[in-house]
Design a protein that fits this description.
Elements lengths: L1 H14 L2 H9 L1 H28 L26
Amino acid sequence: MRSSVLALSLCVLAAVPRGALSPEAADPLFQKAAENGVRSEEVFRRTRRMMQAWLAYAEPRTLLLPDYLPGVKRATAPMDL
């Protein structure tokens, strides 16, 4: 499925004339939106990796997550469970 979407996207991009993309690229607001898109994609990617790491330690039947990862030393604090 991913490969067909990627192939279709590449075909669409190849069909667009080069001059058609330049007006948006010259707009500073478009540039800022493109930069924000790249940054948010990185945040989503890192968040997904962190979620997958936590799910590796989830209880198999209920998928409840632990309060902390096993083997990690934590300082004791008041009201720490």
